[in-house]
Write a structure and sequence with these properties.
CATH topology: OB fold (Dihydrolipoamide Acetyltransferase, E2P)
Distance between the termini: 37 Å
Shape: globular
Largest sheet: 5 strands, mixed, barrel
Number of helices: 1
Number of strands: 8
Strand order of the largest sheet: 1-3-4-6-5
Number of domains: 1
CATH architecture: Beta Barrel
Length: about 140
Amino acid sequence: MINSVVLEGRLVDEPKLLVRDPESTTKPKCRFRLAVPRNYKKEGRPTADFFNCVAFDQQAVYLAQHGRKGGRISLRGRAESGYFDQEDGTRCFYTMMIASEVCVLDYREDRPSDHGVQSYVPLGNQDCFEEMPDPADVPFLND
């Protein structure tokens, strides 16, 4: 069985790093929502899916430091679903994306643009992707 998720979208809110007790061995955790545009419009307006996501450890710290509301990120991970019972006895179901890799694709500049709107700048190569080898160095391509 395969449970693999790859998403690219924009952060709905500022990502927040959650650490319950600095003295404990609890892993850092970052919960965030990701808006991923759909390939079609509804009534002439763009539509999107909103995914609840979580990242742990270094991925959580990285996202909290570099990710910003409205900024683009990509993630790779898995989907997890479950349920919990509320105090009134109703059962709530959820689906969450568990990120194993997170890459911030752009970041918000600290200053507003000339029009008073925050602008976003591509980060470029942030070690999210491997460097392609020179084709001359790949043995089976030179046969």
